[in-house]
Amino acid sequence: MDSAAWFSLKLSIQVAFLATTMIVIVGVALAYLLAMKSFRGKEMLDMFLTLPLVLPPTVTGFFLVLIFGRNGYLGRPLYELTGWSIMFTWQAAVLASFVVALPLMIKTARAAVESVDRNLINASYTLGHSKFETALRVILPLAKRGIIAGAVLSFARAMGEFGATLMLAGNIPGRTDTMPIAIYSMASSGEWARSGTMVAFFTAVSGAFLYIANLYNRRAV
Hints:
By secondary structure, the protein is mainly α. The protein contains 11 helices and no strands. It has helices spanning 3-36, 42-50, 57-68, 75-82, 90-114, 118-126, 131-142, 144-160, 163-169, 179-188, 192-220. The radius of gyration is 20 Å and the shape is globular.
């Protein structure tokens, strides 16, 4: 691969790593909330959080532009306050990947937390452990394989994110062209040999991540 392709690969890994770190922190907390707590509007919240899983990525990207664009609901006050907009930056690619891949972590981690034996949780309470201690010492350790599988899937999804990233970060060579966007640009300009090399590499990496996630999922059952 040439230097431009290497840049796209490194940017994709950087974006996926940062997005997955945020997804693990936020996604596990939300999954635990949805699995262990009962409150009004819980299923509505679950629907809202996992909606990007079924929406076309370009629609998700459109919503992100409405919210975080320079004239968006949050983007405008941020720009007026700091003079900085997230649009057309690599941070926008991180945000797009985070939003699109988050539902995978929520669904996987919620199922893993809900599968923990209630008798073990009640035993922990009987021994005097608080809910927080029980979560850290019993529930999350027992659900860790499902959580790891969710993180692996989220990383793979973040690396492959295209539509929402294109809407929010744009296609700026050397700045925001992640690997999927670079493949699109090369194929559009007729550079089939270069795009074919990147597609082959990307397919192999994605397949490896799916294989790892399946291994963890089987062991988590």
